[in-house]
Amino acid sequence: MKTTFVLAASAFFLAAPAIAQEHGDAEHKEDKFVMIDADADGSLTLAEVQEVDETVTEADFSKYDADDSESLSKMEFANWAADMEGSAEASAGE
After folding, report:
1. Tens digits of per-residue pLDDT, 35-58?
2. What domains can you pick out in the chain, each with its CATH number?
3. What is the DSSP string of 48-72?
């Protein structure tokens, strides 16, 4: 019984930094979303995104607008941000 408890506690403490990192990443994306959402309506338009990054094209934006609403929800933005981070990490590793 003690062995099981020790193993479970060890696994938790080893996993805690990874869980905290994922939580921190989600909060960072949420903060970025709120910062970009100029009119605070809970979605991002192409114009709002281009205010922050003028290189974003309509094609880039539309790729992540899954529901064709001409705006990005928090989930759509999170997907975009995750892909952008993955692309940046891949480029840095080359």
Report:
1. 999 999 999 999 999 999 999 999
2. 28-93 (1.10.238.10)
3. HHHHH-TT--HHHHHHH-TT-SSSB
